[in-house]
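Self-study notes.
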Amino acid sequence: MKLGKLLLLVPAVCLWACSGTPNPDTLEDLIPLFTAGNVPENGPAEDLNIGENFKWRSDKVTPDEWPGEGLARYPMLYVGEGYNRILLVDKGEIVWKYDTGPGWELGDIWMLRDGSILFSRQTFAALVTPDKRELWRYDCQDGEEVHTLQPIGEDRAFMLVNKKPTGRVVMFNRHTGEVLWEHTLDFPESSTHGQSRRMRYTDEGTWLLSYITEAKVVEFDKDWNIIWQYDCRQPWSAIRLKNGNTLISMERDRKIIEVNKAKETVWELNLDELPEPYRPLKCQTVIRLESGNTLLCTRGNSGTGPQLVEVTPDKQVVWAVEDWKNLGPCTTVQILSEHGWSENPGDLER
């Protein structure tokens, strides 16, 4: 059985290794694939009609006096809600883009070790190459949304398909589209859109799921038994850190917490603790970096406010970006200079 409405366009076999690309040390080493001479301005599956999602566009760029060197600090993939363009940033410049059409919303994105990019866009999920070939695509059926997508190993990936009142986890072979298994999850109190934005398969072989409307983070074992639960309002994302703790962003309460297995808070950041003008209106994805710092991704406020804020463990701001000329709202980024691979669960969750 294959995924419903899955369009398998070209074989995802030996994508870039066959071209002589050296074995990368970090994903940053793959950036030349995206700037090579064979990369077209627009790919055949790109939808350049992205509607009115640039209505917040302004000449605002990060002030020179702000900490962290602006866009030059990290190479990264950058996506956001209401801004349906995938951006690849390197050395302070946008070096590659991929337009995904009108509507809402880019949510999950991964650069894989072969250079292909796996992403979700609410109404579909897709895998594209640096030269903008679409390898496969899943289009949602009526009443479905996809906000979570994660690669697992060299061949597999899973999606969480939101649908009221029962969503489903779909594990599939990302090269062939073959469905390996499905598991249903009930969301009795949630609309389709309000069910979840993040689900993660951990390096312990468990599943971590943020229930947004139902106000809880739940961890399941391999048999889908609940082995841990933390109740909190509107958890937008939750990741399992290498120390065993869970880092949670609560969009409504405007705070980020790190809790241990005993449900004790070991670190907390309220957005109001951050000095103006680095204070985001809300926070969606949070990322723990190799340095131990925490990176906040935010939608901003209709073209004002920072989109990225990096804080130290003692809550000092060391990087902030407010750039509404080159970027849109930020749901998540993937920092490409970090060590680890997207295909290895937990590698990029410090």
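Second protein, same conventions, sequence then structure:
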Amino acid sequence: MKARIWALCLVFVAFWGAAAEAQEPPFGYEVTQMVMEGQPVEIVFHSSEALDTLEVNITRLKPKDSWAFSRKNLGGGDSVVFTLEQGPGNCSYKMDVRATSREGEYEGSTTFEVASMEPLDIDVDLSVDLREGTLKFSANRPIGRAEIELFAEGKKPIDAVEKDYGGNSSKAEISWTPGEDTPVLVNMKVYDTYQMWRDIQVFRLEVPHEDVVFDTNESMVRSDQEPKLEASLVFITETLQTYDEVLIELYVAGYTDTVGKPADNQKLSEKRAKSIATWFRGHGVKVPIYYQGFGEAALAVATADEVDAQANRRAVYLMSNSKPATSTQFPNASWTKVK
């Protein structure tokens, strides 16, 4: 599962010594020493007094490149930002600076290094039952710490947990004390040992509903069954409004009992799930909608073959921000999107 990523840049601060005079330099600078791949390096100069000119020449040693920057008439307390493209991996730079003011001329040189990191990638195990109170996850490098906030239906706060992993592993889990309220939304922030982090949301809510009754071997939604879907539509609409910051999708799964041939039941459950999903699309649900039929492959109540069991003729409407993981409820992940 993927989500948006943010990085906290490590900053190196230094003050320049005057080459020609034993005076405090009229400026300082900051360099971002770690960036994500594709991000520029920022060098920020701060003037402590008025500068007539500021000239900065930077050379990247490998792969070879150079940049020249200049500014005139900087006031005391002004800041100016110069940016340059970082090469892959770790890069070394040499920087020469010359500044002039009414007080004199300042020159100096220094070197610095900048590391380029791959974006922090986090995979969350979505096959777990959040009611059990544990969420497992892994990263593409050692994990420093993690923070989670848990919310129940209606955005009711449940718990907030922080855990420090010390960078000992790229696999981790975080737990909370299960209570009466089932977590619906988990807001998660995972940090690596460089203080880069990634924000992740896990959203999962099964829509309470009354199952639609179809005619034998038919998949068309009868008009007398539409009030059941209309009630579900109200719940879905309200949920989308409550959690409008989450990219929610709707998944409709269909199931049958064991009466008839398994292959026929599979096709029938697929058609019925598609009919329900299409009904929601036609009645104003704008988020992505997917459907799938499981036939008699995921019985709610275990029965022998050719048993007429109402409990097994059912559907599941799941609101989630990611494709459901394979499980006993969803034996495979071959979901079809409604256009």
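Instructor comment on the second fold: The helical segments are 226-242, 262-282.
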